[in-house]
Amino acid sequence: MLLWSGVALASVFSHDQGRVLDPASNPLTVNGIGAPTVAYDEDDDLFVMFFETQIDPSTADGCSVGHWAIGAASSPDGVTWTIWDAPVVSPTPGTPYACVAAHPAVVYDAGVFHLWFKAEQGNAVSGSPPWGTANYTGVGYATVDVALDDKTAEIAAIDAEITALQDALEADLLDYDAALLQYDTDVRAQGDEFTCVSPSAPVCGPCSSVSLVANASNNTVTDTRTFCQPYAFTVPATVPTTPAALYSSTTLSWTTTGGTAQSCTWSWIVGYPFTTSCSSGITPGTSSVTVDDVSLQSYALLGTNAASVTLPATNAQGVSGGLLSYLASLQAQTAIPDSSAVSSLLPGWIIQLDEMESWLSTPPVTPDESLLLVETQQLRTDALALQTAIADTDADIAVLQAERDVLAAYTQTVDATVLNGVALAIDTTFGYPSVAKLGSTWVMLFQDYPDLYRATATSPDAFTLDTNPVIVAGQAAWATTEVYEPSMQCTGDLLFPYGTWVAGRRLLGGTFPVGGASDATSNNGIDWFLNLTADFLWASADNYRHFDVITDDRGELRMYYVQRVGGVNEVHLKSTTTIWPSTGTSNRVCP
Description:
There is one protein chain. This protein is an alpha+beta fold and 591 residues long. The chain is built from four helices and 32 strands. α1 runs antiparallel to α4 (367-408) and α3 (339-360) runs antiparallel to α4. The radius of gyration is 47 Å and the shape is rod-shaped.
């Protein structure tokens, strides 16, 4: 052990966050929380803390200090913590930790949490376990699979993406809705450009009257009009004809909007008067009918029959049907807006616009038709773009929703696989292991009262103990009685890449006048240079009972330490920065 008169890792923990882990917040920890050790899960972007807690004070089975377990807590920022309800390692009969699993130390390496802990089996051991029958058995070891990210942030981020996509599409739909309303107005304003009868135009135009002509010569001739909107007229008293035949007849027939076929026939035979015959209820010159179609048929035998009739409309004619009917159906969905319904209607709407474009571009093209043609073409272009936007948005949301479903199905777990034995056998009073990985070598510092010793391993479950201590008590004024609580670090320094914080106490006559914490550095993990100047001192056994120091992503330091408040241990936090939050690093895995 070497002494160091200057400052190595010493830093000013100027920001006191106060209590960050309240033992009363979870039934598991009501007896207090001690010995925190913290690692940063880089895969899940999560801080994880392991700690000791007494789960049963009973000493009836030879457990002189009761039963102690190791618990876990997680935090997105290292400040706000949630305690896992169940112990990670529980005292288990027939194991080296039958009574006590305490003083945890954690290293996160390559996606794995490595956890070491002080193990005690008590004084009522039966048989001959391989780790011996002493109360103290050594350092236990476990690997821990931690899945404690509740995925709230990830789900919220996906929900925000989905909402943004939906909002953007909704804006597109509402823009198109406004264009549809304007188009409806413009088409109706140009209603006279469209006919009222078949072959129908893209839009049904108004009719003030309709004329039919049927000239027969020794044959039958029929002239028919089929309307695109209900057409009302008064049945004429007669149909003008120019009979020049042996026999002639003229028939006006129609189908009412109710589907009833009706007619009136005017006949003439040489030498006989004209006759009129109408469907029941029809009085020529008086009856008004509303029809879907009307026909004029002329027949002549041995001569000609020239028949014609004009039927003025007796009902109001508007601009409707065809493209406008389809537009109304589409606009009802864009106004909601319902992207799925719009998507199903767009192909038919594009066909309607194609027909309108063809109608409007047929010469001669009036100036008004030209303006409406440009508007029609733009609506078609926008319809195609909207069709693509809906499909792309649906595809993107489907991908995001699948990701969200996976996150929503995520189940939080903490599963420990505990070594059936000890990673380091020690049958005397010891505690406070701290481990770091130095290259390919695992290095453990721990207290074997009153000094700190070192053990090394190439495998994290099998350590070999050095003979001599590496940091001894009595060198610093604040640590004359004992040194304890190592907290190993990678410093990043070229000359001294390894470091540890160390606590110490000075007892006088069984009292506790002073304790302190400082640091030590090493260039090889074997020889440690102790800083004799304390980073800070404390004057009560209730202060800084255990602590762990980690490094965040900016190189700033955080110290999680235990204070006894009201007779119960709780975890507090000091930091060298006031900037929260930040992320952590694997600061116990050194190159």
